[in-house]
Give the backbone structure.
Amino acid sequence: MIKSEYLSLIQERMGQRRYIHSINVAESAVELARHYGADEEKAEIAGILHDCCKEIPREEMLQIMTQGGIILDAVEKGTSKLWHPIAGSVYSRDILGIDDADILNAIRYHTTGRTGMSLLEKIIFVADFISAERDYDGVDIMRKKAFECLEDAMLFGLQFTITDLAKRKMTIHSNALDCYNDVIMCLEKKGLL
Ligand SMILES: [Fe+2]
Ligand SMILES: [Fe+2]
């Protein structure tokens, strides 16, 4: 498939707001890929597709994951918010025929992160926070950090999401904590903490 086909495909699967978000994430991902020397085409595809299953019914997400052979852990089972990245990566693999593991992992781990993330995975994780339509408090800091040090930007995002989840008494997936620890150790090693 080519880019325009991916775009019309996601447009059919989501509302206008999320469609614009997806395009913006892809644009930010390409900019980050150019800045950090990652594959710009892969960054664009992963950005376009990262939320491709976010607005489909939950039963459909479950069906995609089950058919794709995914076995959810207990936290994933009980937290439907964790489903769209997993369903999105399976859909991209099984329905769209994407066989690039890095693109699929970038989609799968775009909200939680995980330990040992690739450059592309980090780029999509951060691009989701800095896309053009984002306007939360601190987005300017996040945008600046994104082009200075990916891990520092990730820490900024993780600090917010992890504390926010805890405050709201919601589950925190172990991948997010693994990612947090990874990022802390990476920044320590770089002498940035
Ligand atoms: Fe998402
Ligand atoms: Fe997103």
Summary: The mean pLDDT is 98. The pocket of fe (ii) ion (ligand 2) is lined by residues 21, 25, 50-51, 128 (CB under 6 Å).
